[in-house]
Amino acid sequence: MGEFKVHRVRFFDYMPSAIRAMAFNSRTERLAVARADGALEIFNFADHYFQEKVIPGQDGRAVEALCWVGQRLFSAGLNGEITEYDLENMRPRYTVEAYGGPIWTISSNSQGTLLAVGCEDGTVKMFELLDERIRFQRNLERQKGRIISLSWHPSGTLIAAGMMDMIRIFDAETGKEMQLDPGVIASKSKEVVVWSIAFLSDHTIVSGDSAGKVQIWDGLTGTLVKTHLVTKWDVLALAVSQDESSLVAGTSEGTVVQFQFIASTVDQQDKEWVRTRTFKNHSHDVRALAHTETAVVSGGMDTQLVVRPLLDKVEKNTQESALRKIAFPHRSLVCCAKKAGLLLFQFPDHLELWRVGESDGLGKPGDSLPVKRNPEKLIQLKRKGEDHICCSALSPCGGWLAYSTVSAVRLYRIQYNNISITKVSKLPKDLRSAHQLCFSSDSSKLFASSSHSSVVIVSLNQLECKHLHTLKPRSGESRPVHLLFASEDGKWLAAANADCEIHVYNLHKLKLHCTVPVHSSCPTAIAIHPVTSNLVVVHADQQIFEYSLMQKEYTEWSRKLQKQGLHSLWLERDTPVTHISYSPKNPAHIFLHDMFMFCIIDQSLPLPEAKTMLYNQMTLRSLPEPERIRHSHAFKISLPLCLLEDHSLVVVERPLLDIMSQLPAPVRQKKFAT
Amino acid sequence: MAKKQQRGETAPSSKSAGTDRRTESFSLTLASSDDEAPEEVTFEDSKSAALRSMKEALDTARREKELLKEKRRKRQELFQEQKKRKLLPTDVLEEIDSAPSKEQKQSEDEAEEEQQEAGEGEDDSRRKKKRRRSGKLPHSRNLKGNYTVTTVTERAAASFQQQTAEDFIQSRLYGAGSCRSTSKEAFTVPRLHYICTEGVFLCAFITMNTHTHRSAGLMWINPPLKIVPSKCTFSVCLSKQQV
């Protein structure tokens, strides 16, 4: 297979951000997740939980709640603003100031006509949903405490509001309070905060509060029906299933407790809410929950998104019933300049440029070589403005650096004699903001994907940057492009968008060359072979395709692979492949890697049978296997992997334990024998 | 006045002096004032004396007022002086007044921080801020010394509210009484169970769930060992008898 010198890089201090809120759209099967730094991620649950879109955050946008209304997504935060997002162009569409202080919660009625927000000053504000915007309608009666949680009754006539130490029910039309739920929970020292509330169609109200209780109330009479003490700490989130037969509560301990509306004994007709399952999938507080038809999705301070399918809704022991933990972004945050041996790390608020270390020694496979020169950080570049960095790129020669936010693109020139960086001030007007940036292999052009699926080409030289051309796929399309790849010989440019389309442009003629046939799953990584000009695509469902650009059809190898089908172990992997590279020494090798493993596909060898096992390098040394997958236990998380010019590999690793140790404090739990 | 004094003097001392006087009269020396008729004070004299005293009173009052005025004036001047020292040169003030603030949020943040800085009154931090932000805003000037000038807008109030809301969450989840441990404590790797059976100690150690799996290892330690149960580390002392 080949021996390589591997640079194992562990100085990328990537810290993911905690999950603050989530909302599931059952019609489109998309989950929107809001993070603590204001970033918004959209996961496609129908397509193997692929992270389709990422809208970068903004300083000061502290999102507390999310709400889907049809296809529109709204968020509300502690900065007092309601934001609607443009999911086509991956940016906020507009923000509306609510003038009620920080907003704690947002919820829409089931008809999709009104939006209610709960504010710090004690008012529930109603907004009308118009076609292109929202408009303030009125305030409901002002309360003394802050409104922490809201829930509409499915009929749209009543709203239940959870506040400090009490729950109130409002009539949505007249705005008056219907009743008072004295609520409660009077604790001796501190006020109890009703963190979350759910209003069911039979007028039952379920509330989760900071005393650790899940309480069931009768909304018509205002009386407490049942109290369940679930935890010693707070119950932070509640989610109810669509058919209202099951609800889940998330706690500060990291547990998710399920309640089901069933008869407690077999013969009885009366149903009640009974506590059934407890899931402990998190180490820190669970701040956000969503209940889909078949699964419970939870996320919190430990930054991981966990999807737990409910075993009474899915078949056991299938791919569907497996627990999924999504811990890392499904896109690359590291860019490698192959010729110069440089790495660019992208953080939300700054970029870091490092040079990899050097080592002279030779050794056997598995040896650790002595480091002659340590890796050094060359430049740390802070972003300008409030918007977080959306994407970044480094040219292969290392001389150009570019990054983009939702509002601007910035380009810099780097000198290496004495490390200096100068900003290129006049950029073409068409280059306003980009979803993806890519440099050509000879570092003479910058490709930026902007709105409406178009790609802007800018030529780079010492004196100025001119806009060369804008490539457009077809009229009327507006999907954001999330993958760009420019071939080594500078002839082809491939662009993949979230609609599962891949367009290939001919750069010499500056027009669209072909469109790869659409596969049902979204592409997660694309690459063009330097010699044969074959386009290799890996999709979210782990399918691999190879398309010949010259003949405009799938290659023989690809057809053979599809006919035989991919190995079941390969298809069962739950993280998408994020990067594809080629080896200059051996044109038949394709290097792929995802979050937890890296593998080499040798196209010259026959494909594996369905029954053969896929082994890692240790076991394989003696056996000749056709398609080998190298599992090395040292690779905990392998963020990108690139081949440098001197035929060594650079692997960027981020051990999970390093991330865990920097998270905020979890609750103190007594463990047995400690 | 002199008469009064005399009278005043003689009146209280009359009784005590009475005996003295009798003794004096016995000594047959002439007392100067007693036998004579009271002095005659003319009306003019007393009038002038009264007027004089009034004048003096007025004079002292006026003097006091003037002294106070003088004090106040001096104090006012001192304040003016201090204020002038604090204020910036007039040309900068003019420039600020005329230039409208475009990037309000940025300036507001800066001004907020500068207000906080002013409270502390540390030049060093201001200098640092100046270095970091020099040249960012079009309407800020770097003066000689350590100051950057920006205009304050109303957004300061909004971010203060946001800060209090965030503090509320922080205090409820991580504040007093929330029973939190540190990440390090929660993720320390081996934890020690020990079960003792008849002189053979069995140690089982379980590694924490760092990624997806737990792995448990069992170790048999055949000759009897003395195990020191420490909280998080696994330390074993071999007994002297057999190893």
From TrEMBL, chain A:
GO MF annotation terms: RNA binding
GO cellular component: 90S preribosome; small-subunit processome; t-UTP complex
Highest taxon in the source lineage: Eukaryota
Entries under Gene3D superfamilies matching the protein: YVTN repeat-like/Quinoprotein amine dehydrogenase
Matching SMART domains: WD40
InterPro entries: Quinoprotein_ADH-like_sf, UTP4, WD40/YVTN_repeat-like_dom_sf, WD40_repeat_dom_sf, WD40_rpt
A GO biological process held by the record: maturation of SSU-rRNA from tricistronic rRNA transcript (SSU-rRNA, 5.8S rRNA, LSU-rRNA)
PANTHER family named in the record: U3 SMALL NUCLEOLAR RNA-ASSOCIATED PROTEIN 4 HOMOLOG
Full protein name: UTP4 small subunit processome component
Organism for this UniProt entry: Dicentrarchus labrax (European seabass)
UniProtKB/TrEMBL annotation, chain B:
Coiled-coil segments: none
Name this protein carries in UniProt: Nucleolar protein 7
PANTHER family: NUCLEOLAR PROTEIN 7
Biased composition annotated in UniProt, kind: Acidic residues: 33-43, 109-123
Highest taxon listed in the record's lineage: Eukaryota
InterPro entries: NOL7_C
GO cellular component: nucleolus
Organism: Dicentrarchus labrax (European seabass)
GO molecular function per UniProt: RNA binding
Gene responsible for this protein: nol7
Pfam families in the cross-refs: NUC129 (PF08157)
Domain U3 small nucleolar RNA-associated protein NOL7 C-terminal: 147-187
Region (Disordered): 1-145
Compositional bias annotation for Basic residues: 127-142
Biased composition (Basic and acidic residues): 53-69
